[in-house]
Amino acid sequence: MDLTEISNGMADAAEKAAAGMVQVAGRRRGGATGIVWADGLIVTADHVVPGRKGGHGKHGHKKHGKVRKPTVILADGTKLEAEVVGRDPSTDIAVLRVEGATLTPATRSKETGRVGNIVLALGMGHGVTESTFGVLSGIGDSWRTSAGGVIDQYIQTDVLMYPGFSGGPLINTAGEVVGMNSSGLMRGASIAIPNKTIERVVAQLTEYGEVKRGYLGVRNQPARLSEKIATELGQETGLLIAGVKTGSPAEDSGLLVGDVIVTFNGRAIRHPDDLLSELSAVIPGEKTPTTVVRGGKLKKMNVKVGTQS
User: Fold this and answer.
1) Nearest Cα to Cα of residue 130 among 94, 160, 152
2) Which of 46, 88, 92, 259 is catalytic?
3) Cα–Cα distance measured from residue 179 to residue 192, given in angstroms and rounded to the nearest whole number
4) Do 192 and 171 form a contact (C-beta atoms < 8 A)?
5) Catalytic residue chosen out of the listed positions 166, 183, 190, 253
6) CATH, domain 214-307, list 3.30.365.10, 2.30.42.10, 2.60.40.10, 3.40.50.720
7) 3-state SS assignment for residue 267
8) 150-151 and 154-157 as β-strands: parallel, antiparallel, unpaired?
9) pLDDT surpassing 60 at residue 233
10) Is 226 a catalytic residue?
11) Which of 59, 88, 142, 241 has CB atoms 3.0–4.6 Å from 211's, for a disulfide?
12) Fold for domain 1-211?
């Protein structure tokens, strides 16, 4: 494949992805970008949506006074007033709803790709499709943002993000979305929010208007594991359950005082922050695979996570 074919292939990928992209206006300092997630639903970065973070009710309205609504602008110039369905500043994700136009949802990739793969970042903050490219420079495990949100996978690129690119798609060379660009989560790095995180947050925002954090109802403290269990698991500590609240999801799921939680949602649990992170990453109501040490032996369970009223 010569350079012309590669160049045309990248242009084709950008053109394909641009069909599922819109401009989001509403900020005083220019526009941003949104991804068509489903017909009528737009996903964008929370920090570009009008209104103060944390000062909103269930559907993005301020508790006192009226919030200026964002405007979604299509490629043909059509302007549509958008309703803020919900927003989650902790993951920098907001969901908008528009009516009056048939929108083409973006094609999403099931895989992030590999370090070194070519990726393109797209933006529409100035009303036209813009693109820049680079490579996936880092892919890692889940991480917690400074605002307490859980991002399911660390995706860093060497792509130079221009003004207006936040909320836009990061795509592969097939024109499939692998994540959403955000300049609001980490300074000095080009970060993309993976599809898995977006899907989880969108599901909660469209149902509840907010992200509900998981709740077990236990008091816990770090505890050193026996040498045998530590060797088997490859970790030295777990979380000793020191108390179980009556009527809590933990009690209903069969967790007992004296159990030591060592894995939850497929992740090793060594410290209280580990459990808090995973509780933020699961959807309340789902049964979550959990491993505890009970009577000196490992016991696998399915724990149903609730929400704190």
Assistant:
1) 160
2) 92
3) 5
4) no
5) 166
6) 2.30.42.10
7) strand
8) unpaired
9) yes
10) no
11) 88
12) Thrombin, subunit H (2.40.10)
Give the torsion through C-alpha atoms of 194, 196, 199, 202, to 10 deg. -60
- The answer to whether 90 is a known catalytic residue is no
pLDDT at residue 261 greater than cutoff 60: yes
pLDDT of residue 29: 65
Cα(175)–Cα(11) distance, integer angstroms: 9
Written as six digits, the tokens of 232 are: 């088997």
pLDDT (0 to 100) of residue 55: 40
Q: DSSP letters along 18-72, please? A: HTTEEEEE--TT--EEEEEEETTEEEE-GGGSSS-TT-B-TTS-BSSSPPPPPEE
> Tokens 């060497």 identify what position?
158
Q: Are strands 190-194 and 260-264 parallel, antiparallel or unpaired?
A: unpaired
Phi first, then psi: give them for residue 113, nearest 5 degrees: 115, -165
DSSP3 helix / strand / coil % (the chain, rounded to 5): 20, 40, 45
d(CA 303, CA 289): 6
Model pLDDT, residue 56: 41
3-state SS assignment for residue 146? coil
Structure tokens at 17: 């992805």
Please provide residue 51's backbone torsions phi and psi, each rounded to the nearest 5 degrees.
Answer: 105, 150
47 is catalytic: yes
**Which pLDDT score, from 0 to 100, does residue 225 have?**
96
Query: What are 59-118's pLDDT values in tens digits?
Result: 444 444 455 789 999 989 999 999 999 999 999 999 999 998 889 999 999 999 999 999
